[in-house]
Specification:
It is a single chain. With about 400 residues, the protein is an alpha+beta fold. Helices cover about 20% and strands about 50% of the residues. It has a 14-stranded antiparallel barrel with strand order 1-2-3-4-5-6-7-8-9-10-11-12-13-16. A two-stranded antiparallel sheet has the order 14-15. Helix 2 packs across helix 3, helix 3 runs antiparallel to helix 5 and helix 4 packs across helix 5. The termini are far apart.
Length: about 400
Amino acid sequence: MTKLNIVAASVMMAVTGSALAVPAVSDYDEATAAYQDAYVEGLFNLDSGNQDQTSYNLDLFLDYEQVFSSSDLDTTINFDGEASRDRGPDAGNEDKSYYLAEGLVSADKYFAPDRNLNFYYGKAEVGLKKGQEDPRTQVTIGLGYGRVVNVTPMARAIRIIEALRLRGSLTGDPSDAVYQEVAVVIDKEAEYSTRYGQEDYEQYWIADIENALKGSGMVAGGGDLGAGAILKAYDVLDRETIQTRKKGWEVRAGVGVLFTNYDGENGKPLLEAIAEYHYPIGNSTQFSNVASVGATLDDGDNSYFFENDMSLTYELTDLIDWRNGWTFTHLETDADGFEDITTHTISSGFYYYLTNQLNLGLTATLVDLEDNVNYSINGLRNDGWERNLNLSIRYRLK
């Protein structure tokens, strides 16, 4: 082997070894965590000329999720809202508005988290919809098995260490234990905020991240990281957006009571079963699938519901995400005057982050509605695939 080949092989081994030394996002196993995702997204379309009147369509969406996790208890608060206002192009088309808001609070209590993944759960839900007689309120209790863990802190730790290595602040790749230690500190942001106050906690939080990195022995010069590296680490944490990453699976089944429903019916028993699976594919891709089936029992007018929501998100760069999704829903009812409804919604979009909180999205969507009735539901007709290309603005509240 020539000297040139030896040098080339050594370089390749060094590069390969460095790449393999970076742990996978899914290696993070800390069950104690707290995080929140909150977004508001808007889409607007305005058409004028060559039509009877100016037409417009405004859609607003709000998504909020707060999760508190410990070794034996997971608590989730979730809120989804949507509102729209539109007017058609034909003379006489009137301004129309619509809104839907749904909230949920749930708790999963593990029997013996150190020995198994069995848990029992309870949740309460409420929904409001324009034009309906009553709100929708229900309570459910049940049993489940499995666990979904938030691994976003490891993704953020990998991003920080990568940035510091690129700028020469770290001379090599730390051990997996150091990655874990940095991720645990990142995960405790809410704890630092509570202990030191919202105005001052970041200096203590960043200092402990630095201490974890100093313990690796990889800090250039063997001392502190230095002001430049500290600012870079803070810049990654504060300005770079990383979508929530999860791993694991769980199944659950429960019984409950539908106290009130939109149509005025009340006091109906219900059944539900839910299965979800989340897996980070490498350190840049997140796959998730949630399937749920439910039934409301109503003296012969029973209704059945099935939904499968699948998504795949790939981080093209630190500033661009590519998101893909497919949602399938089917509603079947025995009540007279209603038809079974099946919908497919397929979407693919690119989101560019202007800042940590603000991004622009360009999304293509295909929607198919089948209900054997030739009319429109909320502007969506059932005579074939609806095709849309939307430019949206999305703001991250939390």
